[in-house]
Amino acid sequence: MPDQTLLKTNAHVYIIHGTADKNSSIASADLLVSELATKNRPFIYKRLLGLDHRFSKKGEDQMDQVISDSVKWALETP
To answer: HSE on the CB side for 1, CA within 13 Å?
Structure first.
């Protein structure tokens, strides 16, 4: 179950999850997104196909791109 504090806020939430993540189930991110949507909370959800917990795929690290996208979103979000 998602943190109830997060569900009560009107803060914009940015969720990124690799579909090949073995450390944290993508089902948990899906549940959070479902709960946020039910509560009409603002969020962005990016499921990164084939990326693992460190946002890499077959040795190709995507972490810099993930961070860049996250910072860009944070600077553009009111």
So the answer is: 3
Which pTM was predicted? 0.84
The DSSP line for the chain is: ---HHHHH--S-EEEEEETT-SSS-HHHHHHHHHHHHHTT--EEEEEETT--TTSEETTEE-HHHHHHHHHHHHHH--
In this structure, the strands spanning 43-48 and 56-57 are: unpaired
Residue numbers of the chain with a pLDDT score lower than 70: 1-3
